[in-house]
Amino acid sequence: MSLIDKPVFNSKISSENVTSKEKWLGYLIGPAGALLINAMLAQGFLNVFYTDELGLSGVWGGMFLVIFPVLSKILDAITNVVMGTIIDKKITTQGKARPWLLRAIPLVSVCGVLLYLVPLRASQNIQVIWIILSYNLYYCFAFTMYNISHMMMVPLSTRNDEQRSKLAVFNNVANITITGILVALLFPMLVLPRIKGNINAWITVMCAVSIAMLPVMLLEYYYTKERVTLEGGGKQETVTDSHTFKEKIKVCLTTKNWWILVVFWLFYWSGQLTRSNAMTYYANWVLGKTYADGITQTLLNVIGGLPMGIGIFLVYPISKKLGKARTTYLGFTLCVIGDIITFLFPDNLPVVLAGQFILNIGIVPAAYVFPALMAGVLDEMEAKCGFRCDGPGTGVINSMNTIAVGLSIGILNLMIRGYIQPQFNAAGECLTTQPAGVLRAIVWAFVGINIFIHIFLAVILRFLDVEKKLPDIQKKLGVGEDNE
Predict the structure, then answer these.
(1) Which of 12, 216, 222, 215 is nearest to 99 (CA)?
(2) pLDDT single digits (tens) 432-444
(3) What residues contact 280, with CB distance under 8 A and at least 6 apart?
């Protein structure tokens, strides 16, 4: 018996159907811990820490913050696929993804601390080395291990499409609550104005968050269950999957719907993260009256959070009636309208807020239903070949998110080359003015690029047909229609 098979690591969930405790603790509160740590990075605040606090905008002629994130994310994309393959290899009494959740959780917390513990008294070269090592340790190792296993949990939780859809909603409510309220709303309103220009305060806050979220993350491990993995009773000891990576990736590469999700995920997150990374700069320099005023970015995020909150109650019944892909497609048409309104009047606060409200209504379906669509495609591949391809299938899709992180940061920093590190007087007032070219680039990064991305996403979703196939897929897999 391996260590992970011991009773102390048993799931607290034993029901054959999804329970309320599972939804709330395993798929809402538990993931919020890791999502909070990651959102402090992905919302652009880590890049602000590098540019505004450490003053690294000019390193390597301004190219360090352009090249380094992209190269790191290429490596991260590779480790995503490798990690997915490793997870697929062994099944224990705890499942195949959950054991890796348990391994990843303390690593995410520790590496989250290391990202901000940059040696302030060291030379700039030493700081750059520390950043490269800590960044890759977090993204290429710790968070990759967590995120791949986390993404597998909805597809592996149950074969019942209705239950999976509900878990997908809870899973994304966690993401929206953390990124849309705690980080995107409260941080710029309550925290950022108090720590701006104080690098020690930045380090203290970010390290405290990483440590405090450790026990929260453990809830995801203990209050989830892999019913699909453990079909047949779940009493087996550790076993090895005999199907090779080559066999599984071949199935993925020959499945049209899987390709659509891969392309969709890459472009969706490239647009979302470029906008997210640019938001603080946009609020500080284009839309706000003063740097980090604590109001402008909060208003932007309130407008973003309202539709997401409403969407919790509306997206499930609408997608059930119209279909997940069609609902998402219609949502992107609203995104384009909101993008154009914002782009035409980028410094007019009331107009921008109206445009962002329309955009965020449109983005709701994509934010909530993707895990359920991915679960359907993984079932489609199993029905076609007779074995699960969760590891490579999920790993490659998640690597698109990974590549998007690097691309979005690299694109932003390339566009705003010439950015000037802000300087403050004794009263904490910003004395810096950014060049006109930098301001235009910030507007394009925040909204202009997404006009084209959202049009493209609306088009490719017209070709996704997994929902039409799902009844036949489930029949072939022997899933009972009365499983609730």
Answers:
(1) 222
(2) 999 999 999 999 9
(3) 43, 44, 45, 48, 188, 192, 297
